[in-house]
Design a protein that fits this description.
Layout (H helix, E strand, L loop, with lengths): L1 H16 L3 H10 L4 E2 H8 L3 H13 L3 E6 L2 E6 L3 H11 L4
Antiparallel strand pairs: 1-3, 2-3
């Protein structure tokens, strides 16, 4: 029962992480390719601290991962199945 509880908590964390329009926009953008945090900031039109907080929530939930290259940080999807789920919801055909 403990394993099920942990699994439910992990899934709830993912749903919570996806529960903001900016974070959904980031996941959509990362579905196509990895992106530098500077591109995500430009896309969102927010200050860097706000963008970093959104990315931190997604990373903590295991949805995205980051890689530092010199002075740049690149993000990519760590949980690509989330795209299938979001597409299913958009099309209204999840069954």
């Amino acid at each position: 029962m403990k394993d099920l509880s942990l699994s439910l908590e992990a899934r709830a964390k993912i749903f919570k992480a996806l529960g903001h329009p900016t974070r959904l926009m980031f996941v959509d953008a990362l579905a196509n390719s990895e992106l530098c945090v500077c591109h995500l900031q430009e896309m969102a039109g927010n200050d860097m601290s706000t963008v970093s907080k959104h990315l931190s929530v997604l990373k903590e939930a295991g949805v995205v991962q980051d890689e530092k290259r010199g002075t740049f940080v690149y993000y990519s999807l760590k949980l690509p199945c989330v795209i299938d789920f979001m597409q299913c919801l958009s099309e209204g055909d999840c069954g």
